[in-house]
Amino acid sequence: MSSRDFLKLSRRGALALGAGGLLATGMRSLEAAAETPIESSDQRAPATEFQLGEFKVYALLDGTFVAEHPQDTFGMEQTSEVFEKASHDHFISSNKFRGFFTPVLVNTGDKLVLFDTGRGVLSQPQSGNLLKALATAGIRPADIDVVVLTHMHADHTGGLMQNGIPTFANAKYVTSPIEFNYWEKLGPAANGSARVFAENVLPLKDKFDFIDPGREVVPGITAVEAYGHTPGHMAYLVEVNGRKLMLTADTANHFVWSLAYPDWRVVFDIDKARAAETRRRIFGMIAEERIPFIGYHMPFPAMGFVEAVGEGFRFVPATYQLQLGHEDEQNRPE
């Protein structure tokens, strides 16, 4: 299935999943995990940039953590033997893992569009470093024109406010209406992400534009249905000058346990069966078309490709491919 056909399907299926009837899943608190930061200075955090046609794209490291007992989160239904073998086969530990939080900024030349806002300043120094990463890229919070929330989990909405004041004072906000309605109905008593939604997102309601899959945020950036992780979770296809990039958000939360084994259950996925179907559909499409992607929880700088292998996908981290802008491609050596 091509990405163009994929977007048509997304538009037709935009209302296929209602906001009601799903209960937020219990999850092992990331705050309770032992955390180890990637080093950053007091004023800077890592940011990686590359040219995508006429657009400039930045991967911004909000933070990182190390947690034990990964099978509490990924592949909970598998036996420990299966989980251990799968981990060993991919050269990673079955007892400990590192997670990442990577918002993305797209500079279209006309608009600065930020995708997700990290965990917020209260989680520093391990995370909550989005503003430092923006500073590395030479961007001030007031420069941001549009903030897109792929979904409403707290590690994506935590940076919207600072002491009750909007962090991005001049921005408008974009999200799925299904997603917004689901969390608004839960109310703050549900705690966790619902509480952060009530504190950080709900006060900004009048500044939101609600879009369905298949619609553009700005020219060249199109919403893609990616339901399952949350009821209205969306990915975004960036397309300019014949080049494409998929921002997959939390469609896959680990480069092995979610990609090589897309049917494995993930504790953070609210609708686990739908999330697995979404992983297969989205990564199947970007594997077929060889489209690069940025995944919010992939190893920083969170960029790469996927290859269909067996029943799943092999993550191929980007090296220098995305660093070669279109000017370089037009000036190849003889």
Describe this structure in words.
- There is one protein chain.
- The protein is an alpha+beta fold and 334 residues long.
- It has a single domain, classed as Metallo-beta-lactamase, Chain A (4-Layer Sandwich).
- The chain has eight helices and 18 strands.
- The chain has helices spanning 3-12, 80-89, 130-136, 154-157, 177-186, 193-201, 272-289, 326-329; strands at 47-52, 55-60, 63-68, 96-101, 104-107, 112-115, 146-148, 161-162, 165-166, 172-175, 208-210, 216-218, 221-225, 234-240, 243-249, 293-295, 303-309, 312-317.
- The strands form four sheets. The protein has a seven-stranded mixed sheet with strand order 1-2-5-6-7-10-11. It has a seven-stranded mixed sheet with strand order 12-13-14-15-16-17-18.
- Strand 13 and strand 14 form a beta hairpin.
- The relative contact order is 0.16.
